[in-house]
Amino acid sequence: MIFRDFLEDSGTLSATDPDDPELNGLVRTQTMKINKPSVNDKKKKKDKWDKLFMGEATGNPTAGIFFTTGNKVLLLKRTVVCGNPFTYGLPGGHAQEGETPLETAHREAVEEIGKVVGKRFGEKKEGNWTCFFYKVAEPFPCELNEEHSEYAWIPFHKLKKYKLHPKFKKVALKYIDFVESNYNKMPQSNHQRSS
Questions:
Q1: pLDDT at residue 119 in the model
Q2: Are residues 57 and 35 in contact, defined by beta-carbon separation less than 8 angstroms?
Q3: pTM of model > 0.90
Q4: Helix (H, G, I), strand (E, B) or coil at 77
């Protein structure tokens, strides 16, 4: 007898063909349901990864820096080393034991772009994520590590043309409103600092 497997679009595996002469008129139906992941299952898995990556699932604090010229923001394109690869986000990451959010943001910026430049003019906290805002006189070059493949100083009005990190995308407008309300209240500075 010849055994034939048919994988149907319905997700059923069948070993039955009543017209097969080798079955000699005997038909024995065997079906096995194949569980394909649903769109909701994939979304749940992605949401779980996002929460874990941003520290929400574990309670670990995360922090980063929004470097801005007042109308542009520094964003880094993530590599496959990170979650949400090929998306653009702020320099930042997970806290190490005993670090304050500001210490985390500075350490991560130095690791990811090579330096901390500018004058801090505010901060915003979203869950376990703390974002610090730094005013810079003009865009500066970055020295990237393996976590990012490129950097870009993106005008606020062009952000929608980029594939943004999901967490940054959720808060981008809020951050831009904050910058537009507070940026000119601080004196211009290009103070360099390394942590």
A1: 96
A2: no
A3: no
A4: strand
